[in-house]
Write a structure and sequence with these properties.
Radius of gyration: 25 Å
Strand content: under 5%
Shape: globular
Number of helices: 24
Strand order of the largest sheet: 3-4-5-6
Distance between the termini: 52 Å
Largest sheet: 4 strands, parallel
Number of strands: 6
Order of helices and strands: HHHEHHHHHHHHHEHHHHHHHEHEHEHHEH
Length: 555
């Protein structure tokens, strides 16, 4: 248990009224934002809307109470929609509850055994590939409600689903489409012009009022589910079926790994925004407990939610108390206003999920991957297409096998045998450090060995010391034999953090493979072409120029 250090316990030591007010405002805000998302995710997963709200309440409370991040908000997310829908279709709701609890046990074990850092061994092309695929699948599941198509049973497979939707195109309902399109426009407008007001909240309340006042004849939560039961979620222990354990092991592993990946990615985003450092093992333990308890109240699997976490921080959330208040806000809404939810139109919830799918898709990362060469592109493409046309488990398995093969090939390609010549010795003098004087305005870090997925956390040595570093930071890459998409992304993040702190980053001495990858990725966008130097001698000369430019009043 030495690995378990909840952030809340540390924060309460210095907690005061000012911090509570900030947490209260942020908690209420993010609670209202979570309401439409929780319902939309549950409906898209093939369950009742209250299942999403119950999940958000239980997991949001427990993950904040026990977790390793100050500002992370947990609950149902879009990443689980496709996985949950598949489990429910194959094993029923009871199978989903059992699968979620099994995933919870796996996450608890991962947290207690210190495996929180193991998630770093999943390469970025795989993460981007299945995120792209999940986003596309989520969007495809919302076409029916957005256009008001009359389809009783929507197939689970993408190709079959699209065929049925095209066949039923003549059942298009103009009023529901207009409502969905208006909702989409409102969300986009508020996101762009009034970012402090969450568009999803405006759409939820605005569309519900419109349906109630104008008596619009559209599909709603009431027409499909009969509304949402008022009152607190009831404790109910799902029946345990021993014969289902082996059958559910694979989907449970998928839920656990997806929950671990998204939680830790969200926690990293939270760290960046709040200038904090999360404890990955404590976070996984908390997510495991939350997923163990969620099914006991009829809830879905849950994980850290990047959008809600960002909303929490932007709204002033300082400690895990904001996450607890977010859960209590949802509980109050459920107890006091559940009957009003019957008029929430499904077309508006579909619009909200379209925006969620777009935001979670990481679409801007695709051009970055395509620039990096056929190896990274093949890993991304296989993961993406298997996510869309097979399932997430198969996609990640094949992606990891391909990533391992790419790793082996990169290491093999960068292993060389060559004769030491006079020319080699002469050029080597420009790279060695022993005869160079490092000025006080600069510092040099070196990366030694392959900088591939699984090793990028080594940059913490630089990131953790940024406040105390001099104005110019030089990364010596002379002995960095190889780099991949994950390594490049880590360098880009470091460059951006250094620049945000008012410091400059210079790269020098990269061998042929890293040089080729840096050029393909157009890394000069982050540091400037003039700050990518051939050797450490040139980097020190450039550092002097950069420092003078920093000191110049016209700089």
């Amino acid at each position: 248990m030495a690995l378990w250090h909840p952030k809340l316990f540390h924060c309460l030591k210095e907690y005061d009224s000012g911090t509570f007010v900030s947490d209260l405002i942020a908690g209420v805000t993010v609670g209202l934002v979570a309401l439409p998302l929780a319902m939309a995710f549950a409906i898209a997963s093939g369950l009742t809307p209250q299942a999403g709200i119950y999940c958000a309440i239980v997991t949001g409370f427990l993950a904040s109470l026990l977790g390793g991040s100050k500002t992370q908000i947990s609950g149902p997310t879009g990443a689980f929609v496709v996985v949950i829908a598949g489990i429910v279709a194959k094993y029923g709701v009871g199978g989903l509850f059992m699968c979620t609890m099994m995933a919870g046990v796996i996450l608890v074990i991962m947290g207690l055994t210190g495996m929180g850092s193991a998630v770093k061994f999943i390469p970025r092309p795989i993460v981007i590939g299945f995120t792209n695929g999940i986003a596309l699948l989520i969007a495809s599941t919302q076409i029916k409600d957005f256009f008001g198509l009359k389809v009783e049973n929507v197939p689970g497979e993408l190709v079959e689903r699209m065929e049925v939707l095209v066949q039923k195109a003549d059942t298009f309902t103009p009023l529901e489409f207009a409502l969905g399109l208006t909702s989409l426009a409102v969300i986009v407008f508020f996101t762009k012009f009034v970012p402090k007001v969450p568009g999803a909240i405006v759409v939820l309340f605005g569309s519900t009022i419109a349906v109630s006042v104008l008596n619009l004849d559209v599909a709603t939560i009431g027409t499909k589910f009969g509304g949402i039961p008022a009152g607190l979620p009831q404790l109910h222990i799902p029946p345990f079926q021993g014969r289902m354990i082996l059958k559910l092991l694979s989907p449970a592993l998928t839920v656990a790994m997806l929950g671990a990946i998204e939680s830790l990615l969200s926690a990293v985003v939270a760290d960046r925004m709040s200038k904090d450092k999360h404890n990955p093992n404590t976070e996984l333990f908390a997510q495991g407990v939350a997923n163990l308890v969620s099914p006991l109240f009829g809830g879905l699997p849950a994980t850290g939610a990047i959008a809600r976490t960002a909303t929490n921080i932007r709204s002033g959330g300082k400690t895990p108390m904001a996450g607890i208040i977010h859960a209590l806000t949802l509980l109050v809404v459920l107890a006091a206003a559940a009957p009003l939810a019957k008029n929430v139109p499904l077309a508006s919830l579909a619009a909200i999920l379209f925006v969620v799918a777009y935001n979670m898709g990481e679409w801007r990362e695709i051009p970055e991957i395509l620039r990096l060469g056929k190896r990274d592109v093949s890993v991304w493409a296989v993961t993406f297409f298997l996510t869309v046309f097979a399932d997430l488990t198969v996609a990640v398995e094949f992606g990891m096998v391909m990533a391992a093969l790419v790793f082996i090939s990169r290491v093999a390609l960068t292993t060389t045998v060559s004769q030491v010549t006079d020319d080699y010795l002469q050029k080597g003098w420009q790279h060695i450090l022993q005869d160079k004087k490092i000025p006080e305005y600069a510092t040099i870090f070196r990366i030694h060995g392959p900088f591939l997925f699984g090793s990028t956390d080594k940059l913490d040595e630089v990131e953790n010391r940024i406040p105390e570093l001099p104005p110019v930071v030089i990364l010596r890459l002379r002995n960095m034999t190889a780099i991949d998409a994950t390594g490049l992304h880590a360098l880009e993040m470091l460059a951006d953090k250094l620049h945000e702190s008012g410091r400059a980053l210079l790269l020098c001495g990269a061998p042929w493979q890293p040089t080729k990858m840096i050029q393909r990725a157009e890394f000069e966008r982050h540091v400037g072409a003039e700050n990518i130097c051939e050797n450490v001698e040139a980097a020190l000369e450039r550092a002097a120029t950069v420092y003078q430019e920093m000191r110049s009043p016209n700089a």
